[in-house]
Design brief:
about 200 residues; single chain; alpha/beta; seven-stranded mixed sheet; globular; 6 helices; four-stranded parallel sheet
Length: about 200
């Protein structure tokens, strides 16, 4: 299904592929298959990504980057907070931003391959979401999330891991998302199962 880029959303299952819609030079997108779901709120770049400058980062004026892996699923109305501390200093007498001297960068926000961010979840600045992790709907993520972990709540806490530790190590060792997109798509039946052994066997052929 082709995403509807310039027309109002009429159905919840419509989505946009970020590689086709995002223009901000400070949003780095790997591959072609990360998407934003049901974008009735005018789309990912306009509404989901907050406080990110659209001027290219330079050595004199660096801008924290939003780095997005491939096959990432963004639920509708999720929020990716950028802009460091957004000029607010809670350690000063007043948190009011009288001028830009109060700005503190947070560092890049990194969302690795295969992450699923649920509807209305909020990712705070400078967070690193590990490969294959899941952020439950409505969660507020204030610290890094390990690969293949499931987190939920405000602030988000570890609920469980998607797979046993040994299996997660095997998945990471496969470097699955470093492979050619066509190869990944050709393995869709294997990826839509919990049979890790079958996937490993296939890749070893």
């Amino acid at each position: 299904m082709d995403p509807l880029i310039n027309s109002p959303v009429k159905h919840w299952c419509e989505f946009e592929f970020l590689s086709k819609t995002v223009k901000n030079p400070n949003i780095q997108i790997k591959g072609n298959y990360s998407y934003y779901s049901a974008y009735w709120d005018q789309g990912f770049e306009r509404c989901a990504v907050r406080y990110l400058h659209d001027k290219k980062s330079t050595a004199k004026k660096p801008v924290d980057q939003l780095r997005i892996g491939n096959f990432v699923c963004f639920g509708t109305e999720c929020i990716i907070m950028m802009g460091g501390n957004q000029l607010h200093r809670h350690d000063w007498i007043s948190s009011y931003p009288f001028n830009t001297k109060s700005f503190v960068p947070a560092g890049d926000t990194i969302i690795e391959d295969g992450v699923w961010i649920g509807s209305r979840a909020m990712i705070m600045p400078g967070i690193h979401l590990g490969e294959g992790c899941v952020v439950a709907a409505g969660s507020v993520v204030t610290k890094d999330v390990p690969p293949y972990a499931i987190v939920a709540g405000s602030p988000a806490q570890l609920i469980k891991y998607r797979f046993p530790t040994d299996d997660i190590e095997k998945l990471l060792a496969l470097k699955l998302y470093e492979r050619d997109e066509k190869q990944i798509l050709a393995m869709s039946e294997l990826l839509q199962s919990d049979d890790l052994s079958a996937l490993i066997q296939h890749l070893q052929q």
